[in-house]
Each structure stands twice: as structure tokens, then as C-alpha cells.
User: Fold this.
Amino acid sequence: MKTQTEPSARLSSATAPSGLVQQSDVHISFRNVSVSYGPVMALREVNLEVCRGEILGIIGPANSGKSTLLKCINRTIDFVPNARVTGQVLIDGQDVLKLRNVYALRRRIGMVFPLPVGLPLSVYENVAYAPRRAGVRQRHELDAIVERCLRQAMLWDEVKERLDILGTKLSGGQQQRLTLARALSLDPEILCLDEFSIAIDPVTTMRIEDILRELKQQVTIVLVTNLVQQARRLADRTAFFMAGRLVEVGSTETIFEHPQCELTRRYVVGDFG
Amino acid sequence: MPELCYRVAWRRQQGEFQAGEAFASFAEAAAALWAWQPQSETSVPSAQNPACTNAVEIWCCRQGEEAGVAPRPQYRFIVYGKVGGGGGNGSEAAPWWGVGEAIKGLVELHRSGVIALQPGQRLRLCHREIFATSAGQKRKACAENIARMVFLAMSLMLVLPVAAILIYLIIKGWPALSISFLLENPQQRMTAGGIWAPLVGTFFLVLLSLLVAAPIGILAGVYLNEYARDNWLTRIINLGVVNLAGVPSIVHALFGVGVIMFLAELKRKYGVWVPFYDRCLLAASCTLAVMTLPVIITSTREALASVPMSFREACWNMGATRWQTIRTIVLPNSISGILTGVILQVSRAAGETAPILLTGAVFSVPVPDHGWRAFVPYGLHDRCMALSMHLYTISTQVVNVPEHVEYGTAVVLIGLVLVVNSVSIGLRVYLRLRKKW
Assistant:
């Protein structure tokens, strides 16, 4: 194991010295991950490590491979036709790209995509969906999960009186928070947020950000965001992607105050294109 | 060569243009437009004051001659007071925003030669009201109306034959129609009595064919829409479905006969168990099932595809398997659509004659009038009567059948089809009302 991990450490230090972390803390580790959709390369040889219990912010312009990276973590990349993945994505040292039981993997990973999706079930059943599939049968257990998740997603106060209305009938912002609540419903150990605050008002976004800061005691959070300032507020470390390459990764302070790379500097100050 | 002069004309409220003063130069004529201001509700129109006109023109004519001008203006410019900031060129898309700017613009255009009025030509400067329709927009609206009428006429032409057929059939068949016509068996070599035996036969044929086709078709549709990846196997299956749908029904019948012969051969030579080995109800039903299968598959796929992909992805993201997703989200939200497709096939199967003609339906089967045998007159391996077949028989093969019996039978057959289709339409309406997203 040790001999295997060394080249990766060297590689990541080559691309980003400040992104180097203690091996014991590594939760997710990308090694030479490349993804192509047909002839289009979406990710090119990405080496990146995410520590346990941190919030890793991922920023970058459109088409830089941010969402593709998330899809590799929970293997939803499988659903994209023509997608070809090479390299390794290790979670606790296990290569998820070789996993057979991807369902067990996905239950450990909460995922929020930028499109608000309320399933055509009641609000209650929306949140209880995954726990039910995972075998939770007791009504009081489900009640507790639903209330906890809806509170964490800042939706509880708005829907507690009407948990039986259809999730699809909620407003866009409420549906997005419902999506977040669903992602939290299985007590995930990794939470992947892709533009989670889209369609959510700024005040609620701030409250959810506070919740995320509390959550990171137990959960590793990968936060993809187009709001550079959100990454600055939330992330412990930040990675900057461009055109499928990891340009720079380091502590958020470094990336925003003293970036090594000129591209990063121009992106974070908004002087781009 | 006589000198040219430029005459200013105006009109009020879409009326006739009235010629005003003549000027020696274009610039002077343009400057005279100062008297013109866009129409407003407060100003009082008067003959002397052209202040509340909605268009002015500059006519070009020879000095001393009457102003005989072309029916259509050579140039057309727009003033639109609601546009702020200026900068337009007077066109429809970029109007001038005031008379002052319009004069400046006109003089400039004249000087640069863009406007070159010949004798008899004229230039119009219109004031555009907010939301006023231009000539082009009116033309578009007119074309739009014509197109709608044409399409409506074509759609009505669709309804016409249906209504005509129905009315004609009902009028012709009216004397025969009664409850006893439905419940009695054919009598006196089919020249009297009712249609009970073929009605029951059609019922069992359709029921059995659906029992065979619906499960296969729905499950195949679920596989093709939910599981199948785009590979050569899927493409072959799709090709098969499309081609099966295009096979003429008489070919299905011949295929059915072939299968019967094959199975009979198997039974005779090797003594193995076969589901049927002669022309019978079951064989005819299976033939009908093969015929309806591709349409059931296609409609099932369409119903499933109408469930948004994002729902499935949300479930998969939470670790639900494909089957869990199908069971909890996809099927509950598409079952009405699937059933609609299946029910539509009932009416198609009920009306078909060719496939059952060779595989199990016969001219006449004696059916008891009373007792439970009257309701289940045919066993799976019996030959049976069917409504469509019966209609064919009494109208072509049997002599001396009263006309109203033939038409009555036709009314029952078409009524059956219409009732079944109405159920399917009702289901679709219900589905639309209950749409969850």
C-alpha cells in the first residue's frame, strides 16, 4: 500500500505543494483521473486529495470538469453515455471505479446536483426514500430522520405543517433544499455539493452554510461552486480547475491571498476572459 | 426642364392625405415638418393646424404642376416618441424618437443621396403608436389566420368520415338494434336472431390475446426504456419491433398457420406437449397477441420516457437500484399511460379479421342458449366465432340475410371499438389531471 501511494504523493506535490496532506487524513484521493466523453476530454490526469472532515471548495470556469469530478466519486459517471474513466478514485483506500456494488457506495455519499428535483412523492416520502430503500422500517425512526434532514436543509419550518404535499409542488428553492435534505437522509460520510445554493435565497444560503460548518465534524464535504466568495467563506482548502486540469490546490487563504498561479489569481479576483 | 418642388402633406386619423405648402428644396420641406407633432389626445384637430396628424408626407412634383403622386410612398420612416436616447435611423426597427431628430435625419439622408425623390414619388413619415401594428405585422397575422383555418379544415375533414360512417350505420341498422339482438344466438342460418355467439367469441379472443401480449409487451418496454444500453442488441430489438409493427395482418395469419402446422408436427412425431396443434381460440389469440405486441411495446416505452430523467438520477444518487427506482418512481407515474396503450390495442384486436380467419375463427359454432355454457361457449382448443368474422360471413357468404342485421352487427362492432377507445381517452384525461409535476 505504502509503495503504491508514494508516487501519487509526489505527483500531487508536483502540481500543488500546498495541497499536500497527511496520508492518514486522506478520505478521498484522485489518482491520475482522466475522463473523456467521446472525443472530448473532461478531466485530464487529476491528482487531488480530500481530507477527512474538511470542506474542499472546487472553483473554476464552466466546462472545467468540476461536476465530472463529483460524478466520479459516486460513480454516477456510469450513467453518462460514452464516458470513459481512467485512473483511480480511492475512498478510504478502496478504488470506487472497480466497485461492483455501487449502490452501497452511493448510500455513503450524499450528492446534490444543481437542478432542483422534487420526486413525485410527498415531502415526507422524498426524504424517507433512501432510508426506506436502505431498510429503515420503523415509523418513529423515519420521522426522526425526516425532521433532522429537513431542519438541516432549513426547510422544516416551511413544510412541517404539510409534509404530505407533493415534493414537485414546492417552489424551486424549496425543491433544492429538499434535494439537500434527501442527500443528508442516509447520514453520508461524504457530501458532494454541486452548486447547492442555486435558486436558494441568500439568507437561507447563509444559514445552510452555517449548518455545513457544523456538519464537517462528521462529514467530508466537496463543494463545487461558481460563487467564488462561497468557497472563500466555507472551504478549508480550495482547488482551482480549468479546462479539465487541476491548476492549483491549497488552503483557501493561500488560493485567495497568494495564489501561485497567475490564472488562479485572475479568476479569484474576477479578472478573467 | 422644370424645377422640382417638394410639397408637404399630412393626414389625420388614417384619412386622406391633404397637400399643403410647396417648397423649393427638400431641406425647407423637411423643416416645415416642425409644425407636425405626434398625435396626442389633448390637441384639437383643425384644418389649419396639422398638429394632430399621425403621418406626414413630402411629395415631389414638377414646379407649377398638380401633385400627381404614386399610390405607395417610395420611402417610409418612423417616429416613435417613446424611444429614449435617439440614435435611430428612422427604420421600423430603429425609429427616430422625435420630429427634430427626424428632420435632421431626413435632411442628412437627402444630402447623402440615400433619399432621391423623383417627380411623382413621395416620402412618408409616420408616427408609431405604442403597440401599433405595422403593415408587415398585419400581413403576418393574416397569414397566421389563413394557416390556422387550413389546418382546422383538414382536421375537420378527419371527423367527417367518422361521423358519416357512424350515422349511416346507425340509420341502416336501427331496426335490428335491441338488447335481445346482443343476447340471442344467430338463428335460421344466420338470417335471424342476434350476435351473442360471435360477441362472446370476440371477447375471449381479445382477453386471451391481451393476457399474452400485455405482460410480454410491458416488460419488454420496461427493459428497452430502462435497462437497455445503446448497443447492437438493442438496435436489433428495436428493428424487430418496428418491422413487426409493419407486417400486414394477413401475413400474421399465415405465420400463425405455420406455427400451428409446426406444433402439430411436433406433437404427432414426438408426442411432446404443445399449447395448441389445430386452429382454435388459443391459436387465434396468440396470433392477435403477436400482432398487437409491437404497439404495446412502443406505447409502454413512450409512457416510461415521459417520466423525467432527473427523477431517476435523483434516486440513483441515493443508492436506489434500477428496479427500486422503476418500482417506486417510474411505474407509478407512467402506469396510466401504459394502460392507455394496452386498452387501445383491445379495439384493434377486436376489429381484426385476417389473423383469426386462418387460425381459429369459423363461420358458425353451435352455442347453447341457456346455462353457464352460454357464457363460456368455447374452450381454449375449440374453434370460435368472432364479431368481425361474423360480419364478413353474413355480408358475403350467406344469402338472404336482412340488411338491418348486417348493419346492426357493424354498429355493435364499431360501438365496441368506440367504447374501448373512450375508456382509454378517459384514462388519459384522468392521467393529465393527476400529473404530479
Observations:
- The beta strands of chain B are 4-11, 18-23, 37-38, 52-53, 55-62, 75-79, 122-127, 186-187, 192-193.
